[in-house]
């Protein structure tokens, strides 16, 4: 997943949750999640696939697990606000990755729109040590679920991302926003704690 929508959702979710808690005189309280270690393991796998030079079959397996493990986490915690939306995004990403050789497809047109010159990538090959595989539209399974959305040029971290990434980011925002809806602050202590 491109960090752009997830990072923006996390920052906005924390700020919105804190503001909501302050206005409503509530404390930020995150739910107790089941099997949170699945998310930690998934993040480690994604970092390994994107930061360490791994053989493509190993990297693709790591990327598939990095989507599948948090999907299990989302299912186990599906009654928590926002987790079903996050899970839906992960499922869409997992489908696109699984049906395209274990990597997220990205088109040459998207790479050109991001300013990456053609000599820096090869159609049919992984884009450096990223999660992306360069595929033309006709060669892409579930093209609509690939990395084809582009953040605005003015955004601090420009990149390409998928519809699934947008849903994951919306789920993260919802989880953080909902943290302010729990536990009324005591009348003796109207301070908001984080």
Report on the structure:
With 194 residues, this protein is mostly helical. The protein has a domain at 8-102 and 147-181. Helix content is 49%, strand content 5%. The protein is built from 6 helices and 4 strands, in the order H-H-H-H-E-H-E-E-E-H. The chain has helices spanning 3-24, 37-51, 56-76, 83-98, 108-113, 163-178; strands at residues 104-106, 132-134, 149-150, 160-161. The longest helix is centred in the first third of the chain and has 22 residues, at 3-24. It starts with a helix and ends in a 16-residue tail after the last helix.
Number of beta-strand segments: 4
Helix fraction? 40-55%
Order of helices and strands: HHHHEHEEEH
Number of helices: 6
- Gross morphology is globular
The whole-angstrom Rg is 19 Å
The main pleated sheet reads as: 2 strands, parallel
**Structural class, judged by helices and strands?**
mainly alpha
Task: Kindly summarize this structure in a few lines.
The protein has 194 residues and is mostly helical. The chain has 6 helices and 4 strands, in the order ααααβαβββα.
Relevant terms:
globular; mainly alpha; two-stranded antiparallel sheet; 194 residues; 6 helices
